[in-house]
Structure formats: structure tokens, C-alpha cells
Design a protein that fits this description.
Elements (H helix, E strand, L loop, with lengths): L3 E3 L11 E3 L2 H21 L9 H14 L3 E2 L12 E4 L2 E3 L13 E10 L2 E10 L5 H19 L8 H13 L3 E2 L5 E3 L6 E5 L16 E4 L2 E3 L5 E3 L6 E3 L5 E3 L2 E5 L4 E3 L15
């Protein structure tokens, strides 16, 4: 049984109920989301061969400090960095380090800032120099998966419609959808109900209602969908070492569809790719 509650009346923890936010809440989370989007815009010119992911992470931290925004991942459940940087066959939660990026890599940079108590969560893929056509195609497919998932968001539809839209397109393009990770409710909590699966059927999952806020963040592999988590407890990689890609937006359900809060103000939602 799915329970919906006005966000202001809900306890400050994930109890499995789905929060419904007000227009004022939408405006507040959008401010956080736009700090995140501007940071990701700034990274477009900083991701290049020879740059380390630690350098990228330091920029994310400093950008947050300059904009009164706290990186949500910093010290989250023991995580020690301000962002996640997932390269090539890393699916998600890659930990920034001193290893330099190389020509031909693709890297997902996932940033969440907290502004006035609200979480703005988004990620983008960045090509490092010239990349192979197979990698470029994966980025194109993954971004299209994200946008098809977003197009399925409307009141009265079920969250399974998001997953069906993503899965049907990805598999038609001979790619696979990672099952081990999903989108999630977000707002004053970093991770909240409901879970947003990136596969499934349109008649499955909770009904979407006006006022819901959640992320859509499909992880798409060139090979098989199976992943494993490394010994560090965070880094998830494809078991077959095939390339993986991910794009993420935070969205809110409106009366007739949805609003994307994390859109790039500079039009760089797919940096390095033709628009």
C-alpha cells in the first residue's frame, strides 16, 4: 500500500511514504539544483586528458563553498569526497583520486549540493578528448533514455512508465539497463521514497502525483547489465568490463507533466556531444 503525505507533515527520515511538495518547495529545490547545474557547466572545460578526478573533486568543493552550497556526498556514510567520478566501465560511485584522465575516456560526474536544506542532484557524461564512436553512441543512447524517461512523467501514470520508456529504447539499441541502482525521491532528504526503476512495465509502481520530486538516472551498459561493487564498498563496475554511461536529472511532477530542475543554464546538458 503506497502512502502519500504533504511534505511539511512528514518526519525527517525515509519512512517509505511519498512526500508531496508545494510550489514554494519546488522553487526552493530548484535553487539548489541550479547551483549543481552551474557547477556541471563549469566542468565542461575542465575535463581533459591529464586532469585528475581529485582536481575535479576539489573544484566541486570550492564551487560549493563559493555558492553557499554543501556537497551532500562529503562524509555521507563515510564517503570522503565531494563528488562521484565514474570512468569507462565504472557504473557509478567512482571515488575521485590522483589518476589522470586519458584521451578517449568517458567520465560521469555526479554532484549533489545542499542549499538551504534542499538537495540538488544531477550527473552528466563528459568525453575526455576524442572518443571512439562506440562510446559516443553509448552517451547518445543514455541521454535519450533519460529524456524518454522524463517524458513519461505525468500525474496518473505509474513510475513503471519511466522504466518501460528507458528499457524499451535501450534494448532496441542493443544496450542493457543496470538493475542494481535506481533513481529516488529527493528534497530535504538526499534519498527518499519512491525508488525509480529504469526498467519495468508501465502498469507497475506507485502512481505519480503532482508535487512528487525524484531523480531519474539511468545507467546503460554497452554489454550485459550485471555489476559488482569493489572492495572499497562504493565503486560499482560492469562485470564484463563493458562501457557504462549515466545521465541524471532531478524532476518535479506538475499538473500536466514535470519540471526539470537541473537543466543546464548554458545548454550543456550533454557536454562534448552534438546538440
Amino acid at each position: 500500500m503506497v502512502t502519500y503525505i504533504e511534505a511539511a507533515s512528514a518526519p525527517y527520515k525515509n519512512t517509505g511514504v511519498i512526500r508531496l511538495y508545494t510550489p514554494e518547495d519546488f522553487a526552493a529545490i530548484k535553487r539548489a539544483c541550479q547551483v549543481t547545474a552551474r557547477c556541471l557547466d563549469e566542468l565542461a572545460n575542465r575535463v581533459k586528458p591529464g586532469v585528475t578526478t581529485d582536481e575535479i573533486d576539489r573544484f566541486v568543493f570550492e564551487f560549493g563553498m563559493d555558492n553557499n552550497a554543501l556537497p551532500a556526498t562529503l562524509n555521507y556514510r563515510g564517503y570522503t569526497k565531494s563528488s562521484c567520478t565514474s570512468i569507462n566501465h565504472v557504473v557509478c560511485h567512482g571515488i575521485p583520486n590522483e589518476k589522470p584522465l586519458r584521451e578517449g575516456d568517458v567520465v560521469n560526474i555526479d554532484v549533489t549540493y545542499i542549499v538551504d536544506g534542499w538537495h540538488g542532484d544531477s550527473s552528466r557524461m563528459y568525453p575526455v578528448g576524442e572518443i571512439k564512436r562506440a562510446a559516443e553512441r553509448l552517451l547518445e543512447v543514455t541521454y535519450e533514455c533519460l529524456m524518454r524517461g522524463i517524458a513519461a512523467v505525468k500525474p496518473g501514470a505509474r513510475t513503471g512508465a519511466i522504466g518501460e520508456a528507458i528499457q524499451s529504447f535501450a534494448e532496441a539499441e542493443r544496450c542493457s539497463v543496470v538493475r542494481d541502482f535506481c533513481g529516488h525521491g529527493v528534497g530535504r532528504l538526499f534519498h527518499d521514497a519512491p525508488n525509480i526503476l529504469h526498467y519495468g512495465r508501465a502498469n507497475e509502481g506507485p502512481e505519480m502525483r503532482e508535487g512528487m520530486i525524484f531523480t531519474i538516472e539511468p545507467m546503460i551498459n554497452l554489454g550485459r547489465p550485471h555489476v559488482k561493487v569493489l572492495a572499497d564498498g562504493w565503486t560499482a563496475v560492469t562485470r564484463d568490463r563493458s562501457l557504462s554511461a549515466q545521465y541524471e536529472h532531478t524532476v518535479g511532477v506538475t499538473a500536466d507533466g514535470c519540471e526539470i530542475f537541473t537543466l543546464s543554464p548554458a545548454g550543456l546538458d550533454r557536454p562534448g556531444l552534438p546538440t
